[in-house]
């Protein structure tokens, strides 16, 4: 009789760093041993207000003491208020609220297909996507992105996606055919290495969609909600979408996602067509509305832009002083990346030893994604710790 195999109780799909955090405040985290870390990950661009922000805590506690969940069988006033506020602040006329970024992108994909089906063009179901993209971990979203590390072992993938190089308008136009329905793009690729859409690219996509009758879909799961210094990244490019996915920073750490759309794009989405058991429940909407309370204040995004400029200036200075280690600085606002020579994962570990947390991405890039409430002194300290690591050379 063979010996029973052992398998961990927690499915081993993550290579977790051996750190256990017990509490946080603002841009800081403390581990079990009481060591303090400057957090420039923000839960991968999620903790937009930092850790334990009093306004967010107060909103969640107040809601938790009243009502957690009722389902979408009934009206949810906080959900209605959230939708109204997102519509008022964006290109959109309507909002579907769900639980995550992947679900938000799934809703966008379904909306696109339903849009053309309702118009008597069911053959128009294909979506142009981009190399280096990341849209989530569901079967549809990995099929859309197509990266080997995402799709290996999950065939057959969902058909209907045509990938082209990011930033190449000629290749996009060449990929448009009679079955094309939409273009799905991240204005700033996060997982792909903090790659900002080249100048004129999103405007070119908007023009192609208008010319060919396609829907333009933005994935702003990571770059939205103030991360680039504007509420939505598309505002920087003067190229509004027809449909957009949000999540991450929308809830400030509480799981919530949203699909935003124009009335024309969403016209075929009626009762029973799509749904979510947990999506938009009172707790999630209390969190998201609390985030909007602060992010929609006029001075908030001005402050994000100022802090982003300070961090970018400091990083550019380090790149000039340490070209043998720091190859490039990328990004917008407080969504910045540094491309390093050598092993970027080891360099991230070196930074952790110095008390600075960053997020690895593709192309040997480390993302710096501090909470949007980061202070000047936090930025200056992060730059000091980064310079201390750079002095040691490539990892």
Set out the fold topology:
Elements: E1 21-25, E2 28-31, E3 36-39, H1 42-45, H2 54-64, H3 77-88, E4 94-98, H4 101-118, E5 126-130, H5 139-145, H6 148-151, E6 161-164, H7 169-175, E7 180-185, E8 188-189, E9 195-196, H8 201-212, E10 215-219, E11 243-246, E12 257-261, H9 282-295, H10 298-321, E13 326-332, E14 335-340, H11 344-353, E15 356-357, E16 359-360, E17 365-368, H12 376-390
Parallel strand pairs: 3-15, 5-6, 5-7, 7-10, 10-11
Antiparallel strand pairs: 1-2, 2-3, 4-12, 8-9, 11-12, 13-14, 14-17, 16-17
What does this structure look like?
By secondary structure, the chain is α/β, with parallel strands linked by helices. It has 2 domains: 56-267 and 274-295, Aspartate Aminotransferase, domain 2; 298-370 and 386-395, Alpha-Beta Complex (Aspartate Aminotransferase, domain 1), CATH 3.90.1150. 35% of the residues lie in helices and 18% in strands. The chain has 12 helices and 17 strands. It has helices at residues 42-45, 54-64, 77-88, 101-118, 139-145, 148-151, 169-175, 201-212, 282-295, 298-321, 344-353, 376-390; strands spanning 21-25, 28-31, 36-39, 94-98, 126-130, 161-164, 180-185, 188-189, 195-196, 215-219, 243-246, 257-261, 326-332, 335-340, 356-357, 359-360, 365-368. The strands form 4 sheets. The chain has a 7-stranded mixed sheet, sandwiched between helices. It has a 4-stranded mixed sheet with strand order 1-2-3-15. A hairpin with a 2-residue loop joins strand 13 and strand 14. Helix 3 packs parallel to helix 9 (282-295) and helix 10 (298-321) runs parallel beside helix 12 (376-390). The radius of gyration is 21 Å and the shape is globular. The relative contact order is 0.16. The mean pLDDT is 97.
């Amino acid at each position: 009789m063979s010996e029973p195999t052992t398998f961990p109780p927690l499915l081993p799909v993550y290579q977790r760093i051996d750190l256990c955090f017990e509490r946080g405040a603002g841009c800081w985290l403390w581990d079990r041993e009481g060591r303090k870390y400057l957090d420039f990950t923000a839960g991968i661009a999620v903790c937009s207000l930092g850790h334990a922000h009093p306004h967010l805590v107060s909103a969640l506690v107040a809601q938790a003491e009243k009502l957690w969940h009722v389902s979408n069988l009934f009206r949810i006033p906080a959900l209605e208020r959230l939708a109204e506020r997102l519509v008022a602040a964006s290109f959109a006329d309507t909002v579907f609220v769900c639980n995550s970024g992947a679900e938000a992108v799934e809703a966008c994909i379904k909306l696109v297909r339903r849009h053309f089906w309702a118009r008597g063009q069911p053959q128009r179901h294909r979506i142009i996507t981009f190399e280096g993209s990341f849209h989530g971990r569901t079967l549809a979203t990995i099929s859309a992105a197509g990266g080997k590390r995402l799709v290996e072992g999950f065939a057959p993938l969902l058909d209907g996606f045509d990938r082209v190089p990011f930033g190449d308008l000629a290749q996009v136009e060449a990929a448009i055919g009679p079955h094309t329905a939409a273009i799905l793009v991240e204005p700033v690729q996060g997982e792909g290495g903090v790659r900002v859409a080249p100048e004129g690219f999103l405007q070119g996509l908007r023009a192609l969609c208008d010319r060919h009758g396609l829907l333009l879909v933005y994935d702003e799961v990571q770059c939205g909600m103030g991360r680039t210094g504007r509420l939505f990244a598309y505002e920087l490019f003067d190229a509004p979408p027809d449909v957009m996915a949000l999540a991450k920073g929308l809830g400030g750490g509480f799981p919530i996602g949203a699909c935003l759309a124009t009335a024309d794009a969403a016209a075929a989405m009626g009762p029973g067509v799509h749904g979510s058991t947990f999506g938009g429940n009172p707790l999630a909407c209390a969190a998201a509305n609390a985030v909007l309370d602060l992010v929609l204040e006029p001075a908030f995004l001005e402050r994000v832009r100022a802090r982003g400029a300070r961090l970018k200036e400091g990083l550019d200075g380090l790149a000039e002083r340490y070209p043998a280690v720091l190859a490039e600085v990328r990004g917008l606002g407080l969504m910045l990346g540094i491309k390093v020579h050598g092993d970027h994962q080891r360099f991230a570990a070196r930074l952790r030893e110095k008390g600075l947390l960053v997020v690895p991405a593709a192309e040997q890039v480390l993302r710096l994604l501090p909470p949007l409430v980061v202070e000047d002194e936090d930025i200056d300290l992060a730059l000091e710790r980064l310079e201390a690591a750079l002095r040691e050379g490539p990892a």
